[in-house]
């Protein structure tokens, strides 16, 4: 799927069609979870700090918090449509899956392209969303093809095209090569997939390890016989980082948490569920490991709540010794989610690490991106709020672009609404 999170926002909030949309954390340390193609022309992209993306796009940027439940339902509708034509799918995330249609065994490139075009048309008709499709002899080539097909296209790679395509690609494009492996290869002067493929298998194992090295080397040579198979849902989503030098103060740990937690949070968003339990893992200089967990009263994908909880779980290196590895994990994953009742308190904790006492949220405490409903105007979303008023754009996927109305923040008719109502399916 193309720019999935931002595309779903543009679908359910039709006024945003054609506008540069950024989805992600709104706080000072927020990270972009999704960027529309209109924002990418300015250089914005996923995983970029939100403040940097906003600076690149400028005043026209529309910045919205993620709505995981909406993305999950939209994703389910997309892949229900695909499964009607390809029964077995290996779904990698909200917006990406592999399929191996039996009817295409022995098909020509033209027949494959026609099938892909029909599949894209079906997804567009059923969901209103745009999909790009790549096809090739194996998963690796198909994934590369889908990237080349974006936005809004089909790319079928014939067997005779594959070696030339692979040889010239940056080695990081090889599925499974991350920043650490890329750096190891770069130090040896290996920067392209072709250069990596030119190693023998023993050399690949020596550089990247005997477990993953040979498998990645086979992919670099265009050998990919992995079957398409349904995947079980993850029970935990986590991220961790090993530091060049031990962290020896609590402030250093606090500085390290947000980027690690936000990496795990991006994966959580792509999974589509919320988490009830947050776990922090601390590996000390002597290689011993300490873990601490906290369970929330509800599952959430609210980044401020999850990162704030991780910060509360930290232990002071002055008491436990230097920390060489820090990990943040989310578990207790559930489709049923609830937003934080005290988002401002969670954000304050991100800033200074203090834990404030909860206080009731004000009735008019509206945030940009909140889903709301009004008996006179229907479903809408908050475009702006402050100084006792709130501006709401009343629209859904089914209505097309809707009117904006400015109401009193304490208007008794204005209430929070189920974000799923914006899909109007």
TrEMBL record:
The active site is at 96. Binds 2 magnesium ions per subunit. Its EC number is 2.7.7.7. Pfam families: IMS, IMS_C, IMS_HHH. Belongs to the DNA polymerase type-Y family. Its cofactor is Mg(2+). It is an enzyme of class 2 (transferase). This is DNA polymerase IV. Monomer. Keywords: Cytoplasm, DNA damage, DNA repair, DNA replication, DNA-binding, DNA-directed DNA polymerase, Magnesium, Metal-binding, Mutator protein, Nucleotidyltransferase, Transferase. Gene3D superfamilies: 3.30.70.270, 3.40.1170.60, 5' to 3' exonuclease, C-terminal subdomain (1.10.150.20), DNA polymerase, Y-family, little finger domain (3.30.1490.100). It catalyses: DNA(n) + a 2'-deoxyribonucleoside 5'-triphosphate = DNA(n+1) + diphosphate. One of its GO terms (molecular function) is damaged DNA binding. Residues 1-178 form the UmuC domain. GO terms for biological process: DNA repair; DNA-templated DNA replication; error-prone translesion synthesis; SOS response. Poorly processive, error-prone DNA polymerase involved in untargeted mutagenesis. Copies undamaged DNA at stalled replication forks, which arise in vivo from mismatched or misaligned primer ends. These misaligned primers can be extended by PolIV. Exhibits no 3'-5' exonuclease (proofreading) activity. May be involved in translesional synthesis, in conjunction with the beta clamp from PolIII. GO terms for cellular component: cytosol. The keyword Flavoprotein does not apply. Mg(2+) binds at residue 95. It is found in: Cytoplasm. The gene is dinB. The record marks 5 as: Substrate discrimination.
């Amino acid at each position: 799927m193309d720019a999935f999170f931002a595309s779903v926002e543009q679908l359910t909030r039709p006024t945003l069609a054609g506008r540069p949309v950024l989805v992600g954390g709104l706080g000072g340390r927020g990270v972009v979870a999704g960027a529309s193609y209109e924002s990418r022309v300015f250089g914005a992209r996923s995983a970029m700090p939100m403040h940097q993306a906003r600076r690149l796009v400028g005043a026209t940027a529309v910045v919205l918090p993620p709505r995981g439940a909406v993305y999950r339902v939209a994703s389910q509708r997309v892949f229900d449509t695909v499964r009607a034509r390809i029964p077995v799918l290996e779904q990698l995330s909200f917006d990406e899956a592999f399929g191996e249609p039996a009817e295409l065994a022995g098909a020509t490139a033209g027949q494959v392209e026609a099938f892909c075009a029909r599949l894209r048309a079906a997804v567009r008709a059923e969901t209103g969303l745009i999909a790009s499709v790549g096809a090739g002899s194996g998963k690796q080539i198909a994934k590369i093809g889908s990237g080349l097909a974006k936005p809004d296209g089909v790319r079928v790679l014939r067997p005779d095209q594959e070696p030339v395509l692979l040889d010239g690609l940056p080695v990081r494009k090889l599925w499974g090569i991350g920043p650490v492996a890329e750096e190891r290869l770069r130090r040896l002067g290996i920067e392209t997939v072709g250069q990596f493929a030119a190693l023998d298998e023993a050399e690949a194992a020596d550089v990247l390890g005997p477990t993953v090295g040979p498998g990645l080397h086979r992919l670099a040579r265009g050998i990919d016989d992995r079957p398409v198979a349904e995947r079980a849902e993850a029970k935990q989503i986590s991220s961790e980082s090993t530091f060049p030098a031990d962290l020896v103060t609590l402030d250093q740990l606090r500085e390290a948490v947000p980027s690690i937690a936000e990496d795990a949070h991006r994966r959580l968003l792509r999974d589509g569920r919320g988490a009830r339990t947050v776990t922090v893992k601390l590996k000390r200089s002597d290689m011993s490991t300490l873990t601490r967990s906290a369970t929330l009263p509800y599952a959430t994908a609210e980044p401020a709540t999850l990162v704030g909880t991780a910060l509360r779980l930290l232990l002071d290196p002055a008491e436990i010794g230097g920390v060489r590895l820090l990990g943040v994990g989310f578990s207790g994953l559930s489709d049923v989610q609830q937003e934080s009742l005290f988002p401002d308190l969670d954000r304050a904790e991100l800033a200074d690490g203090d834990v404030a006492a909860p206080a009731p949220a004000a009735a008019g405490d509206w945030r940009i991106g909140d889903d709301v409903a009004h008996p006179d105007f229907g479903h809408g979303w908050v475009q702006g709020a402050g100084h006792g008023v709130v501006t709401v754009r009343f629209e859904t996927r089914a209505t097309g672009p809707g009117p904006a109305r400015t109401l009193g923040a304490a208007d008794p008719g204005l209430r929070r609404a189920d974000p799923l109502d914006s899909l109007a399916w």
